[in-house]
Amino acid sequence: MDWKCCWSRNEITADECIGVAAGEESLLHAQRRRITEKCLDCPRFRDDMERAAAEGNPLAELAAHLRGEYLAQREQLQSIAGFLDTQTREITFLHELSLVLQTSMDLDEVLSVALTAITAGKGFGMNRAFLLMVDKDRRYLQGYLGVGPRNAEEAWHTWQEIDHSNLSLREMATHFHRNKLATERMKFREVLDNLVVFLNDEDHIFNRAMRSRKAMLVEDAFTNPDLDPELAVLLGVDRFLLMPLISGNRRIGLIIADNCITHKPITPHDMQSMEIFAFPVAFALVRASLYERLQEEVQKLTAANAKLREQQELIVRMEKMALMGKITSSIAHSIRNPLLVIGGFARSLLRNVGGDDPKRVSLESIVSEAKQLERVLEEVLNYSDSLYPVRDWWDVTQLVDYVCQELAEPLAQHRIRCDFIPEERIPHAFVDYKQTTYCVRTVLHTAMARSREGGTIRIALRHEGDWITLEIADNGPSMSDAERDALLMPFATTQQLGGSVGMPLCRVMLEKQGCALEIDKPPGGGALFLIHLPAIQEEV
Questions:
Q1: DSSP-assigned states of every residue in 84-106
Q2: Are the C-beta atoms of 164 and 91 separated by less than 8 Å?
Q3: Torsions phi, psi of 250, nearest 5?
């Protein structure tokens, strides 16, 4: 039989086979390879088999069966090879992704890697993704970050940029984190602000997806009875994927992904891949959030420790000064009496000695040196007395008004108003002016630190019996008993330690004057500082 196809010949020329192309000349001398790679697909071979069958050749039917089986097996092998190639790329991608997530401790960097992986062609290739995070109080889901194009034109420019840059996943995520994170967040701000769902709303589809702990494909969003129509309008797509981020029993957040530009269907394989991807992302987000919170606590503790050290050093220094004052006062009083006797006796003798008496020069020298010692002694006693209260009658209204004027500038900087309302005919208080002024200033500093911007600190002055009470109320948060005790206790662990040497020293100063300092908790919130000053003279 005259065969049209070259399958029956061991060697052929290039003109004898229509399937051998340039660069495949080795097939001209390799019959077996030529048959499997070219002849089985050649129309001449099919014609030969059809003619053989028409002529009743028994091998024609067998050859057709073997050809069909071979082509089916080859197609299946090609499909398996393509699947393996896809799986290899996916495993390589997940491996690279896991390495990045394991080494990153920055929350925004983790988010950049995760959302880049979802939207990048080298990753899952979705057009757009939104991330919702559970708030710190675990009350609601809030839109946190969005990534992707807003329209086809922007998508085209983005894809062209990616094709030309040829960056790896890590490099793309790093570039996004440094250059695009803030702009992407602002670009989708309107959508993110409206993606808020309370966790106790069990019927909402976001919470249902969180409870299922699996990827959920939402279809026919605009007509789906189980979906809020406003959500579909907000996202602007009819089909999207919900991927919950769960770590153990801890709900971290939710990813919304869609193909708003290409409208490419989301396959079950896409959902399975996203589920595999979700666990390391959730774990990395938990770790980054905990690390971020740990850094905040470390900063707070560092600031608190620095403030505590400052308080400790100041209080120890004041204790040393007080001890030195006691010592100098004791020594000065011990010297004063003998010195007064010596000086007085010398002056008495000097009055009875004539001008030409040779003893007069010696007596004048004794009197002069005694006066010099008395002056030095007076300076020592004045310094020692300054460490203790020097009480006198003072106008408390003027004192408080002076402190308010002194703090007018820092109050204005914090946009805090100070309302001072004294009663009429407030009597004078028997106090140490300098120490009382210091205490009022410190309490105002503490109230200012607790108050919110734009708030008001209310100061009232009233007279009741033998006492004048100064009330200073802030508009800050309610103060617990532990916080109140810590504020008045030296070296207590508290974040709000007050200004300067703090409230504990004010308490000691006021107690030495016979005064009292109290902190109360009003029903409406904030803190109420009460300073009780004596309106009668009383020895401490």
A1: HHHHHHHHHHHHHHHHHHHH---
A2: no
A3: -95, 120
The pTM for the full model equals 0.45
* Whether 39 contacts 77, CB under 8 Å: no
Radius of gyration for the alpha carbons in the chain, expressed in angstroms and rounded: 45
Residues 356-365 have pLDDT tens digits of 888 888 888 8
Query: Which residues is 242 bridged to in the sheet?
Result: 216, 256
Dist CA 110 CA 173 (whole Å): 9
- Are 472 and 443 in contact, with CB atoms under 8 Å apart? yes
Residue 133's nearest CA partner among 296, 282, 290, 292 is 282
Strand partners, 418: 457
Domains and CATH numbers, the chain: 6-87 (no CATH), 104-266 (3.30.450.40), 300-385 (1.10.287), 391-534 (3.30.565.10)
**Crossing angle of helices 107-119/58-103, nearest 10°?**
160
CA atoms of 204 and 336, how far apart (whole Å): 88
* Cβ contact 446:486 at 8 Å: no
- Whether 226 contacts 253, CB under 8 Å: no
For the stretch 288-331, pLDDT in tens is 788 888 888 899 999 889 888 888 887 787 777 667 667 766 77
How many C-beta atoms lie closer than 10 Å to residue 369's C-beta? Answer: 14
Q: 505: which residues sit within 8 A by CB, 6+ positions away?
A: 314, 315, 318, 442
